[in-house]
Design a protein that fits this description.
Length: 559
């Protein structure tokens, strides 16, 4: 029976994989249990690892270190690929205010952590672990551990212990903060719903269809190409034209001549709609079906871009209108409709709305790919190129004045930054960054569960002793302060001074702590998607800042 003993208590590969698999499987199953409507999800993997580690189930330290770092890289890279496309656009318009408030929450949490460190004398490494647990941010935990290990070539298990102790009440503290703000400002959901619907009606949408009658004498007998030149600084596509003389509907081409009282169907942005209306003529109400009569050969179809060689190419370079007599009116990317202007760069996964004859549309579908099978195939080259570049970037020493030892972004910061940049700009370099949501989620969950299991197994041996004999129970209170104080202060400022709608504010507070249970609670409470929009707006910058502040606190106090 020696093989059983080796399998359970040895240090071989089989033993390591068995312990990891059991830890992850049991943790995920327990994480599905809800208490008061809230579950801890995959974080229970950490606590199962601590429990097994406490009872002596250990993994060889080198194997444990490899699995932990590799799991962390997979997790932060997949997070970066997910949030990257919206990272830079999240700073536009109203998102600036939300992101500034989220940044203030992160910084105030870091300041609170430093104050508690000086007040209580708890080591900063432990306090960073408590801070990461208090705001339920696992990448911050990984970044802190990696930064500490880089400095001292040995881990500090109290970072993981602080995280584990503070995490449960961190989830509760976020939800309690949402409730406190609701009652402090006496918020009524009916009023919030009415106000946000008004705001939504005034928002700009990506692509707006309008039907116009040509009234401006300045464009009579001019071609559509000449009209586009006159309005070259506006985003619009003329899709179809109905001639006044015979009511014939045709696909609009560059050489099509405009006449008085002709009707044209245009796709444009809401910002440019008024200018285009004023310049061309007057708007009329025509159903979209009227632009494709029953006796015509025109069809409208959405076609997927799936050919890798089209990645990064400009739409106008394909000359689809000139060569095939079709019009592309809209481009849908990640659920957002964009006006299909000639200068728009294509990405694999884009959906183009194509109008034309059935033969021409089918030909264009062949040219663009239009294959779901190709989209479902994982683009592993981009993933591993990105991980390699991220590891290189994370290993570059950066010297800052006043810090004797060079700072590194590490295995958490490097891959995260590279993933954000690749997902946003990779198509310029022919890198296919499209990944199905399920594939990204699989990569992320595999990474985070391996990481949490390793952290728990490594910290389990001293967990009980820390709580009972070393004052670890006080860490729960400190974590609760780090959770609630910044949320209550900045949440109140956002509501009182910036008049942010409560549903959006709920998303902001949940997103500033990157806490999915708080988002789930907010969505269920609000009964709409506005908390999710607020969460998504601040999530990218918050995730980046949480990783950065955790590393900087370690480096500033130990380097």
């Amino acid at each position: 029976m020696d093989w059983i003993n080796d399998l359970l208590w040895g240090e071989g590969i089989a033993h390591s994989i068995l312990i990891l698999a059991v830890t992850i499987a049991v943790g995920i199953q327990l994480g599905k249990i809800k208490l008061f409507g809230v579950s801890l999800g995959v974080t229970l993997v950490l606590f199962v690892g601590i429990l097994l580690g406490h009872f002596g189930f250990q993994i060889n330290s080198q194997i444990l270190h490899f699995f932990k770092e590799f799991g962390l890289i997979l997790f932060v890279f997949s997070v970066g690929m997910q949030v990257g496309p919206g990272f830079f656009s999240s700073f536009k318009k109203g998102g600036i205010t939300l992101n500034l408030l989220a940044t203030a929450i992160v910084l105030l949490g870091a300041v609170t952590t430093v104050i508690i460190h000086f007040t209580t004398g708890i080591p900063m490494a432990t306090m960073v672990g408590i801070m990461s647990g208090a705001v339920t941010n696992t990448p911050g935990l990984g970044a802190a551990q990696q930064a500490y290990t880089d400095l001292f070539h040995a881990p500090d298990e109290t970072i993981a212990l602080g995280y584990a102790v503070a995490y449960p009440l961190g989830v509760v503290g976020i939800i309690l903060s949402l409730l406190c703000i609701r009652y402090i400002f006496r918020i009524r959901f009916e009023k919030e719903t009415t106000e946000i619907e008004k705001e939504e009606n005034n928002q700009t949408h990506g692509a707006t269809p309008i039907s116009l009658v040509v009234k401006n004498p300045a464009i009579f007998n001019k071609s559509i190409g000449e009209l586009c030149t006159l309005l070259k600084h506006r985003e619009f596509v003329i899709s179809r034209i109905m001639y006044k003389a015979n009511n014939l509907i045709e696909i609009a081409k560059a050489e099509t001549i405009l006449h008085e009282e002709d009707r044209i169907f245009i796709i444009t942005t809401e910002e440019d709609a008024e200018t285009i209306k004023t310049f061309i003529g007057e708007e009329i109400q025509m159903d979209r079906k009227q632009w494709i009569p029953a006796d015509t050969q025109f069809i409208s179809r959405r076609i997927l871009v799936t050919k890798p060689e089209l990645n990064g190419k400009k739409l106008g370079d394909l000359q689809l209108r000139r060569l095939h007599g079709i019009n592309i009116t809209r481009l849908n990317r990640s659920g957002v409709d964009l006006v299909a202007t000639p200068g728009l760069n294509l990405q694999v996964g884009d959906r183009l709305t194509v109008v034309g004859s059935e033969v021409a549309v089918n030909k264009v579908a062949t040219l663009l790919g239009n294959s779901l099978k190709h989209l479902n195939e994982p683009n592993l080259i981009t993933i591993f190129i990105g991980i390699a570049l991220g590891v290189i970037l994370g290993s570059i020493p950066i010297q800052f004045p006043g810090i004797p030892q060079p700072v590194k972004l590490g295995l958490a910061g490097g891959p995260l930054i590279v993933a954000i940049l690749i997902s946003r700009f990779g198509y310029h370099y022919k890198l296919i960054t499209y990944t199905t949501q399920s594939a990204n989620l699989m990569l992320r969950e595999v990474g985070i569960t391996i990481f949490l299991a390793c952290v728990g197994l490594g910290a389990g041996e001293g967990f009980v002793d820390t709580i009972i004999n070393k004052g670890g129970y006080t860490w729960v209170g400190y974590g609760f302060i780090i959770t609630t104080l910044p949320l209550l202060i900045i949440g109140s400022i956002g509501r009182y001074f910036f008049k942010i709608n409560y549903f959006t504010l709920m998303g902001l507070l949940a997103g500033s702590t990157t806490d999915p249970p708080a988002l789930a609670y907010s969505n269920a409470t609000a009964g709409n998607d506005y908390p999710a929009v607020g969460y998504a707006t601040v999530y990218p910058i918050t995730m980046f800042l949480r990783v950065l502040t955790a590393q900087l606190l370690i480096l500033l106090f130990y380097a």
